[in-house]
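Annex B. Sample input.
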Amino acid sequence: MKKSVLAILMTSLFFTTFSAQSHQVEAVTMMKAPLVIDDEQPAIAPLETPEPKTKQDVALLLNLPVKNMNDVNQVTRDQFSVTNYSIEEIEMLAKLVNGEARGETFEGKVAVAAVTLNRVLSAKFPNSLKKVIFESGAYTAVSDGQYDQRPGPESYKAVYAALSGQDPSSGALFYYNPDIATDDWIRTRHIIKEIGKHVFTR
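Annex B, continued. Sample output.
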């Protein structure tokens, strides 16, 4: 009987040891299993600022509308940087860009818009966009009727860029096309840079 009890104990010990080793192997195997990363997860596209295509788009991006600059008698650079434009002024500037820089690069269009804003800041010119644009003989597009054509999306985009502070003209107050300019006075101005067919001067 003692042998039977001993045999039972030995058998029980064998199965216990085997079971423990099996669990240990399973645990080690699980620990060594490689981490699977799903490379096919779709990337999240970054948010982009929509390009303005109308005067309303420009107004929304600039947090307008607002105060009409015709009510301002004197404008300093700091005041100008925070001045709210009217939606009518956005349209005026877009029509001017379209008439004066149609066919030019986007940079050229922004530069033309920037020159107009630079004039508003200068004591040599009227202090409102409307007065600067419609100053007698100031812009060919106003004189020959091209100003009245409907602006395209890129003109509004250029206006937004200029009103947001971009100035490819480097502070210019004038520009002209040397191939067709007939005014000898403009050719005496100090040239700052050339963008497309336009020469920008002070």
